[in-house]
Specification:
This protein has 571 residues and is an alpha/beta fold. The chain folds into two domains: 3-192 and 253-335, Alpha/Beta hydrolase fold, catalytic domain (Rossmann fold), CATH 3.40.50; 350-565, Ribonuclease Z/Hydroxyacylglutathione hydrolase-like (Metallo-beta-lactamase, Chain A), CATH 3.60.15. It is 28% helix and 23% strand. The longest helix has 25 residues, at 307-331.
Length: 571
């Protein structure tokens, strides 16, 4: 084990008993009320997201806060999942100042909603419910976040924390899935719940989940409006949280922590207020860690089981967890591993690639062949006219967006789209394509849509001159699209199968253009040159050129110094 890794595995015990004078305590109270925090900075934007979880068979919501430079950097970021307490909800962390603290860290925070579930897979559910709350986090939520945001989707870049019920939940989930998290934090964790459940089973009583009186208090959840999951009664699962001793042990932090080899143990952070009823549980867990020589960080300071304490301490735990993540990323060789993966992928795919600098990070273009392309930008993958004959899409990067220009077989491949659809991308296509494959977004000529943050414009693609023997154009007007996609400050035009139409020649501010040059179905080199001179793309890639010599267009545009012609293998 290297020195960097060892530095993570250091036991730290911080016993701080702080006596606050009245004016300091008053400042704490005022800061909580006004959401001032300890940082003189505006809170980062909090976004609410809705998604469907199969594990609990309901639409769930969470709040997410992205780093300050997320939009412009193109980087991937570690993620901290934060679990709220009993009878609280996913808005809790915003009120505790987390969006302000995030000014200090390149970190994505996901504020999880778990109702009154204790974040475990329930032993039994009633009334047709599904209550697999551990699976909800570790399977559905994390998969959704990793597939929709630029995350470091590895153990080294993932942490979990919680308070009260969420403190227990963070330890239970984090230790059960120690291969998924490098850091676990528990504030005022309700760790005695395991002991209470053991005793309830022994005495033949119903294990505690929530106070009966809380189920009558609708006012405790002001601020959320989730259909069927807003009132305390709705947010309390119907069923049995545990039925046997084995059920309790499956999520008992005191048992779970003994099953993990020290070298594979996530770093554990614990804190609790000295006036908190849960203090003994935290101390007991700390002593177990010390006895077993398991690395951890522990802190006690003045405070009860209330917001004033958590608001103050969450800033410390976030600092510790962010530091642990950074050490794991460096000591775990994440950057080196990521670079090797990219090199392996490039070698395995065997396709040419170009990198285009944009105001929002690099745009990577992969030239797959004929009319088939792949763009990678801001962590998103866009496949254009994917073709199984050109690539093995089971091995290709997962799609966020699939663009289909028209219904002809060398552009519309249901098999390739079916493989890519496993990652639930947005499939953008024409009305004619829907006869062969399902699509999420149907665009007609002239439409403009924003798809997963990217502006996409549909440009008419059709023949004027080239026709079949019966006089019908190879590509009739109104059936096919070209697409202009905006990547940061760069506008990229993929023309599809078309000729040099008036709409093409009227395009403005095109930085990169892919123009087809395949007789008799699309354009002659002269038509391509005519179009390029009209709308003046900064970079022109002839594509879909079949047997046409691409050097012809280079010669035709020799005098157009403002247009750079790049030839790639796009027969």
């Amino acid at each position: 084990m290297g020195n960097v890794t060892k530095s993570v595995l250091v036991t730290t015990v911080v016993l701080v008993i702080i006596g606050f004078c009245s004016d300091v305590q008053a400042a704490d109270d005022r800061a909580i009320t006004e959401n001032v925090g300890f940082i003189a900075a505006k809170p980062l934007k909090v976004q609410e997201v809705s998604f469907h979880s199969e594990a609990v068979n309901r639409d769930m919501r969470f709040n997410i806060v992205l780093p300050k430079d997320y939009i412009t950097s193109g980087k991937h970021y570690p993620v901290l999942y934060m679990l709220h307490g009993l009878t609280a909800n996913y808005l809790e962390w915003t009120k505790l100042g987390v969006p302000k603290y995030l000014n200090r860290y390149d970190l994505i925070v996901v504020m999880v909603d778990g109702g009154n579930s204790w974040y475990v897979n329930w032993a039994k559910s009633y009334e047709g419910q599904k209550n697999n709350w551990d699976d909800y986090i570790t399977k559905d939520l994390i998969e959704y976040v990793d597939s929709h945001y630029r995350t470091i989707a590895k153990r080294q870049g993932r942490a979990i924390s919680g308070l009260s019920m969420g403190g227990y939940g963070a330890l239970a989930v984090g230790l059960r899935h120690s291969d998924m998290f490098c850091s676990i934090a528990s504030h005022s964790g309700a760790l005695k719940i395991s002991k209470e459940w053991y005793e309830a089973i022994k005495e033949g009583e119903k294990p505690f989940v929530v106070w009966p009186e809380a189920l009558e208090e609708d006012s405790r959840h002001l601020g959320i409006n989730v259909p069927g999951f807003s009132t305390p009664k709705e947010r309390t699962p119907k069923g049995e949280v545990v039925l046997t001793v084995e059920d309790v042990e499956a999520a008992d932090p005191y048992k779970l922590v003994l099953k993990i080899p020290v070298e594979k143990m996530p770093h554990i952070y614990l804190d609790c207020g000295v006036e908190d009823e849960f203090l003994k549980g935290s101390q007991r867990f700390m002593k177990l860690l010390m006895e077993k020589e398991i690395p951890f960080t522990y802190a006690e300071s003045a405070g009860e089981h209330e917001a004033g304490y958590w608001w103050r301490e969450v800033g410390l735990s976030m600092a510790v967890q962010y530091s642990v993540i950074q050490r794991n990323l460096m000591g775990g060789g994440y950057e080196e591993e990521r670079q090797k993966e990219e090199q392996r992928a490039k070698a395995e795919l065997g396709f040419e690639q170009d990198i285009i600098k944009t105001s929002s990070g690099d745009l990577k273009i992969t030239f797959i062949g004929h009319g088939t392309l792949m763009f990678m930008f801001e962590g998103k993958v866009i496949h254009v006219d994917p073709q199984s004959e050109k690539a093995d899409y089971a091995k290709m990067p997962k799609a966020d967006i699939v663009l289909v220009t028209h219904e002809h077989g060398d552009h519309l491949d249901p098999e390739a789209i079916s493989i890519l659809a496993r990652n639930d991308p947005e499939v953008v296509l024409t009305r004619a394509c829907v006869e062969d494959v399902a699509g999420d977004i149907i665009m007609k000529n002239g439409d403009v849509q924003t798809v997963r943050g990217l502006k996409i414009e549909a440009v008419p693609a059709y023949n004027i001159v080239h026709k079949r023997s019966n006089g019908t154009p190879y590509h009739p007007k109104g059936r096919g699209n070209g697409y202009v996609i905006t990547f940061g400050d760069k506008r990229v035009y993929v023309a599809g199968d078309t000729e040099n139409t008036p709409q093409m020649k009227a395009l403005k501010d095109i930085d990169i253009a892919f123009l087809p040059m395949n007789l008799p179905y699309t354009m002659t080199p002269e038509m391509v040159a005519d179009a390029a001179k009209a709308f003046k793309p900064k970079v022109l890639y002839p594509y879909h050129y079949g047997r046409t010599d691409p050097d012809t267009i280079v010669n035709l545009l020799k005098g157009a110094k403002e247009i750079e012609v790049r030839i790639r293998n796009m027969k």
